[in-house]
Specification:
- The protein is of the alpha/beta class.
- Helices cover 45% and strands 13% of the residues.
- It has seven helices and five strands; from the N terminus they run βαβααβαβααβα.
- The protein has a five-stranded parallel sheet, sandwiched between helices.
- The radius of gyration is 17 Å and the shape is globular.
- The C terminus is likely disordered.
Length: 179
Amino acid sequence: MVVWFTGLSGAGKTTLSVALEKRLRAQGKRVELLDGDVIRERVSTDLGFSREDREKNVERIAFIAHLLARNDVLVLVAAISPYRASREAARRLIGDFIEVHVAPPLAVCVARDSKSLYARALAGELQQLTGVNAPYEAPTNPELRIDTSVTPVDDAVVMLISLVTQREQRSPVPQVVDS
């Protein structure tokens, strides 16, 4: 399965996915985290921030996540992934897909601006920052929406573990037949 965290820069996608990864590993699960910033640095260095490039980046992340998931790895994706159509294409490719909208108010994301992206965008120095001068299409029906300005990380992880566990219990487990 793939748990796909989407939201603005500074929303808490990486924070939540890292905390969830740690808990899942402690439970003995095979888990990998695909962080959008790392993918940009290692896989998508040829892409910019146009709509087409953002869609191509999400397509690459979805393909990698799909490969891992079909090999029984629980995949966590933490990527802005601003367009609904791209996330829906990822859902169709992957199948067992949980969309988590990490959704604090924009003002909270701006206040958390650890990379100075919002400050630069608001000063006119940075173009195409999602949520400021580039669009973000929030999910209309995510499996979970978390406002990290009011929900502590530990509480969010408990909700996420519950969601993953419910999904695992619904998924058929392959039967091993001795020959």
